[in-house]
Amino acid sequence: MTSDNFSNNSEPNDSEPNERLDSQQLPKINLLTMFRLGLFQMGLGMMSLLTLGVLNRVMIDELKILPFVAATAIAMHQFVAPMRVWFGQMSDAKPFLGKHRSGYILIGAALFTSVSFLALQVVWQLGSSLQANGWNSPTYAWAIVLGFVFALYGVALSASSTPFAALLVDVTDEDNRSKLVGVVWSMLMVGIVIGAMVSSRLLTTPEICGADILAYNPTSVGGIADIAKLRASINPVFIIMPATVFGLSVLATFGVEKKYSRYATRSAVAQREDQITLGKALKVLTASRQTSVFFSFLLVLTLSIFMQDAVLEPYGGEVFGMCIADTTRLNIPFGVGTLIGIGSSGFLLVPRFGKKKTIKFGCIAAAVSFLLITMSGFAVSRPLLMGGLLFFGLSSGAITAGATSLMLDLTAAETAGTFIGAWGLAQAMSRGLATVMGGAVLNAGKFLVSGTIFAYSMVFGLEALGMLTAIWLLGRVNVKEFQSNTKGAIASILENELD
Q1: Range of the domain at 218
Q2: Sign of CA dihedral 95, 35, 395, 464
Q3: pLDDT digits (tens, 9 = 90+) for 160-175
Q4: What angle do CA 190, 191, 194 make, to 5 degrees?
Q5: Of 142, 370, 405, 419, which alpha carbon lies 20 to 30 A from 287's?
Q6: What's the number of domains the chain is made of?
């Protein structure tokens, strides 16, 4: 390093007051902009409804693809989650299209919305091969291709969602971050509800929600699904909704980073982007034992919340005799409950009781909700099922508000994207594992016990047990220890560069 560079980087007394002044002069993000940012999350909610709701239900119930195979293929978009750390570090270190976050967000959104339609076309090929040939080599090959397409979907999603979460850190301060989290993650649920309403309306057709489908027994050997009719009804949904989601992504992020981002004034290396490489960022990431503690907590928590994703729509179909449009609507009480839970927790519970107590309350309530959902199956009571899903949504909202606020506290300005990538990795890997486990436990339950409801009960009971484990892990999380260790690691890296 030249003496000029050393001189430029060794005068903190002259530069820091200006940096603080610049940060103070940046405008505070307002409520309207918070809701505008939430449009991106609303789009992600709509996309999750398409993949885990519509596609999963069609594959398992209508096309009679084995639950484990369907769940594993879909879960591949979560198993590429290590890419989140790389994309997070890239957005920290290398601006794209002139911005640290926005360029990555928009390119990723364009890709994952396009790939979703491709995935649907592979599903039709898989279903056709299964109907014509059974489980032979071509059918298994199409299943592998479907997994590969979902992996591409996951890479594109990582390139977009991880820089977006880092942007939330960049544009907020400690005093308004929980409000932004409440708004943005509430909009995620709005997306799920809107997606469920729009999808159910588009899918309410005689071909896929008529008497034949209602009389369809998914456990029978023969298949009655008319793939041509399914394709004609479902393809337009996978064109209209992804196009809408991309438009929402553009509207959500346009101009926000330029006006509100505090990254340049917070980061000691914002103008020295070559200094924090991926390897050095990973050293910061692993500097505190709290990183592994919180990572483990997120794994167990997310696994416990999302294991039902792969089985909820089939549960409605097999146990309650619902058609595709009806099972899609199951997301409405859950989404409404989560929306209320996130909003009330972000503005009321978290500021009053703190993040950790809010999470603990949510975990206990979620365990109770799984009991209600199980009881609804034994009673074959749709009102009880809807009530259980509403209560589960309220519980999940409290968990999401508390855990996301805690997650954003466990970052460092210089490597915010890397940390967000790591937490995203924990969540994505556990969501992928949850999808696979949901299908696997359901498969095992159908083999081990008689009665479909008992097989589904095994899934819901395992989730309740996971919630109690998450509470235990939460008690070991210490934010102050994390922040102290991380600051020391960053200072050490910068000192080594100067030396």
Answers
A1: 27-262+275-498
A2: negative
A3: 888 888 888 778 776 6
A4: 85
A5: 405
A6: 1
